[in-house]
Amino acid sequence: MNCDTAIRDIVDAARALRALPPCRESGRWTVVFADFGHTMLPLATLPTPVDGASASDLFVTLHVQALSSYELEAPDAATAEATARAYFEQQRSGLRPWSDSWLTAAPGTVIEGPAPDPFLV
Q1: Alpha carbons 74 and 96: distance in angstroms, whole number
Q2: Inter-CA distances, 5 with 1, 9, 68, 84, Å
Q3: How does pLDDT run across 50-104, given as a tens digit for each residue?
């Protein structure tokens, strides 16, 4: 995949996310990102859909665009994104940029509780 194609896919995904029906806030958040193996590019943090049809639409949108997402409990969107980043960085801490990386798409990955502190592990 070249850079132009990747950027177009990300723009298409952002448009598709805006087209989804609004969700009621439930304290559960979905952090949508492009996964570049060793790093993540957050695209949106939105309330996790509570009804089945909207959740299914979100999953299909992310899957078709080859995007990943984490679902987690948090008091607000900023905390959800910070927790998602910490979790991602902990999971990928042993990778060297671009050399050991793999591109993956995992929509709907659930993070239970706050990300562990990598310095305490």
Answers
A1: 30
A2: 6, 6, 17, 26
A3: 888 888 888 888 888 888 999 999 999 999 999 999 999 988 888 777 666 666 7
